[in-house]
Design a protein that fits this description.
By secondary structure, the protein is an alpha/beta fold. The protein has two domains: 183 residues, Bacterial extracellular solute-binding protein, family 7 (D-Maltodextrin-Binding Protein, domain 2), CATH 3.40.190.170; 126 residues, 3-Layer(aba) Sandwich (D-Maltodextrin-Binding Protein, domain 2). 46% of the residues lie in helices and 18% in strands. It contains 15 helices and eleven strands. Helix 3 runs antiparallel to helix 12.
Length: 327
């Protein structure tokens, strides 16, 4: 698979790097419409702010590989930019794993208050600088919940023995283990077939996985435990930043932040529309659950925190309207 991706990448990018020195090559995996629109808006803003001296060329929908492959290509300088889940980025620097902590955010307002704070996020974005990549901004990826084929997840005990797909994130893996499930880390593009064939009983993701990835065709129930709100992160290679002049770097950073504001304008309406679509087109049954037992079951993750992650959690909790909330 990786060899095929590299051949495709060479075919698509081989001449681009030689003749378009003022073009940022931006590849991404499958994404929901609001995120695609935000990335397109980023490109428009870069073009506007540089009077066309710098443009963005997209390679969408996993043309050049899955998210891990794309990050590695950015590291190697074969790509300039990508957009991936911060859950995946935990394997590049542990600090990103903080955002995979279950029940970390109270709600959407708390989430945005944290992610929009440069004092909190700049050290996170810069944590992978020595590895050749830095973060520019984030996009909302919604609250992640469990969805399964067969009987719904209504209480912690219902996860016992169930094979649940998680991202390639140690924190996500441990969360499902503490809840009694059997976590299986795999790429998003493999999940549909794995559930269909019985390799998985279900997965955990946002509502767009039901509709955009069409997981609604192979599962029956979704339980809104909303265990995590893991942001996507827009990455750029340090080599690409060094290639740009000061004005271009400023334009890229400004465009990234403005594209996030645009994304937030679209996100809430899109989520509501997809919930209706999942129910009407795929017959998904929704369930509300008592989150307290789930929170109690994953408490050991917080008990074991130390160092930079513990400090970051403290900063995140300080942004909460409910500062007395126990972890």
């Amino acid at each position: 698979m990786r060899r095929i991706c590299m051949i495709a990448m060479a075919t698509l990018l081989g001449s681009t790097a030689l003749v378009q020195a003022e073009t940022l090559r931006f590849a991404y995996a499958q994404n929901a419409t609001p995120t695609k629109e935000a990335m397109a808006r980023f490109a428009e803003l870069v073009d506007e702010k540089t009077d066309g001296d710098l443009t963005v060329q997209f390679f969408p929908d996993s043309q050049l590989g899955g998210e891990r492959e794309l990050v590695e290509q950015v590291q190697a300088g074969l790509l300039d930019m990508t957009k991936v889940s911060s859950g995946l980025m935990e394997s590049f620097d542990p600090i990103y794993g903080t955002f995979s902590m279950p029940y970390l955010f109270d709600d959407t307002d708390h989430y945005y208050a944290v992610l929009d704070d440069p004092e909190i996020m700049t050290p996170v974005y810069e944590s992978t600088k020595e590895r050749g990549i830095v973060g520019l901004t984030y996009y909302d990826s919604g609250a992640r919940s469990f969805y399964v084929k067969g009987d719904p997840i209504l209480k912690v005990e219902d996860l016992a023995g169930k094979k649940i797909r998680v991202m390639q994130s140690p924190t996500s893996i441990r969360m499902v283990e503490l809840l009694g499930g059997s976590p299986i880390a795999m790429g998003q593009d493999e999940v549909y077939t794995a559930i269909q064939q019985g390799i998985l009983d279900g997965a955990e993701n946002n509502i767009f996985a039901i509709t955009v990835a069409r997981h609604g065709e192979v599962v029956d129930n979704m339980s809104f435990d909303e265990h995590t709100r893991i942001p996507d992160v827009v990455l750029i290679s340090t080599a690409a930043l060094e290639r740009l002049d000061d004005d271009q770097r400023k334009a890229v950073r400004e465009a990234a932040v403005e594209s996030t504001a645009y994304h937030k304008e679209l996100w809430a309406d899109a989520v509501n529309a997809e919930r209706e679509k999942a129910k009407e087109d795929f017959g998904i049954t929704y369930h509300e659950v008592d989150k307290a037992p789930f929170q109690e079951a994953v408490q050991p993750i917080y008990d074991d925190l130390s160092g930079d992650q513990a400090e970051l959690v403290e900063k995140i909790r300080a942004k909460s309207a409910n500062t007395d909330k126990a972890q």
